[in-house]
């Protein structure tokens, strides 16, 4: 797992390249900042007590 401390511009550029997202050098600081913010929000999900919560099918089986 990548911590927010590891989200350098170069790390974000590498991740973007791995998934095929081109990032201009001028956009890199903003993209890295937004990605770090997103990861911070996702980390908050770990604190939720989900015991006893059943998953919900978002894409129900259509029978095809």
How large a portion of the residues is in β-strands, by DSSP E? under 5%
What would the principal axes of the Cα set say about the shape?
Answer: flat
Derived structural class: mainly alpha
Q: Largest sheet at a glance?
A: none
Oligomer: single chain
Radius of gyration from CA coordinates:
17 Å
Beta-strand segment tally = 0
Quick check: average pLDDT?
A: 85
Distance between the termini: 37 Å
What is the percent of helical residues? 40-55%
**Uncertain parts:** none
Number of distinct helices: 2
Run of helices and strands:
HH
Overview of the structural elements:
By secondary structure, the chain is mostly helical. It has a domain of about 40 residues. It has two helices and no strands. About 5% of the residues are buried.
Please specify the SSE layout and strand pairing.
Elements: H1 9-19, H2 28-43
Summarize the structure.
This protein is an all-alpha fold and 64 residues long. It has 2 helices and no strands.
Q: Main traits of this protein?
A:
64 residues; mainly alpha; 42% helix
């Amino acid at each position: 797992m990548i911590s927010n401390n590891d989200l350098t511009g170069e790390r974000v550029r590498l991740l973007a390249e791995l998934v095929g997202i081109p990032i201009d050098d001028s956009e890199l600081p903003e993209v890295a900042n937004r990605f770090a913010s997103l990861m911070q929000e996702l980390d908050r999900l770990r604190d939720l007590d989900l015991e006893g919560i059943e998953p919900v099918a978002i894409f129900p089986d259509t029978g095809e």
